[in-house]
Amino acid sequence: MKAFRLTLKNQGIILNALGGRIATLVKIEGKNTIFEVQIPEELEFRRAQKWISKYVAGIDSIEYPLRIEDIISSLRVLDLLLERQVIPYADKIFMLIACASILKTVPQKPEAEIIGAFMPRVVARYRTDLVSTLLSTPLVISTLLEGVTPNVALAIAEAILSLERRNAIFFEVVT
Amino acid sequence: MRREKVASRIPLVIASSFPALRMKLRGYEDSISKNVLGFIDEYSPWLLRSALNLLETGVLSDEETRIQRIFNYLVTRVNDIVEGNKKPIRLFCELLMETSFYLNLISWSIEKTKMRREEVIVDLYGGPGVASEYIALRFKYPALVFEDDEVFLEMIFERRLRTGLNIIPIKSSIEKISDHIDRPVRLLVFMSPSSWKIDPKVIVKKAAEILEPKGVLAGILPLDEHPAIKPYLTLLSASPMPKTSEFASLLENEGFRGIRIRTIDPFSAFYSFKK
Fold this sequence. Notes:
The structure holds two protein chains of two kinds. Chain A is α+β, with helices and mostly antiparallel strands. Helices cover about 45% and strands about 20% of the residues of chain A.
């Protein structure tokens, strides 16, 4: 992203990094979110548009107050992904990273046990120590994302979603 | 001594009509206590095989333990499933399909298939995409995986990201799949337990419509509803499964020939060719 302006109406947050001459601007509006992004000319416009729509869909679905740091982490991951093929469940990835400080993963028996015993091949793709920790201990997601690169944050979010999909963990809102 | 200890723990039911297995038990008869050893007709060769193995080795093989644990898991979640929670069924499908027992059935059912240029593979109700991954890897041809469950589609996409294979998840019901296919279909499979919710007659009719001549229809079904898994089938399938003979005539009536069915309890794998 060259520049952007993100308006979260229900959160009362405006992150403004738009400036100078605007060449290619993508503007996507959700129920509570307006996202304007200036993308580099070399990026495929339609693909970028799809990614930004996914981002807005993910952020729009959040009803809890967010931390600016988490929103910026989610923007860094979006920036990383803009050139890649669109992932159908990308909205969930952005939502998870943006909610990192307010969501806790909680392991669920017996799924956590059976997955730990016969790790399905897809789950086995993720870091073993990360999967084992998620399957055994309740964790606030932000503790896993502290100081990591967008690439690592993406891998962690995918691992969490993969386990949630298989019912091995569920999310709890930190009060 | 060890044999006796092990045998006394086994709730073993042996069928009098199963001479080959009884032969295998020769030599162990003394060590099997009389109150455990019953000769009745309702038996499960599947459980019996496990029991035989237990007798010989003292432990269940990894594979048998695994399959039993996977079915036991389904039992622990019966209430949730009845209440409409699909998550346990999804995990069950994935774990079961990743056992070597199931993968061997998949492998057998596609062994006679020869793909040609410009053709595609169709996986109907592919579930978690285990069979699609296996088949796409084997043939190096694109596999269109049809599912109507959003989370299964995510699981299939995850598999695509992991393997880099050309597995294309498509959200569609069985009635509308033709709208998404623009190339000849040489192989149509329905291997996942998630396909059991659809009446096999409907799938076979659709396959006859979509497959090109000499195309292969292959699948795995719990034909004959083996007693060992009958209670689970009510959780997984919408209609009663046909008997093997009924299913074979159904395939014939829809214009399939060269029908081969291989049953390794509790499942049957099959393949057949469109005329």
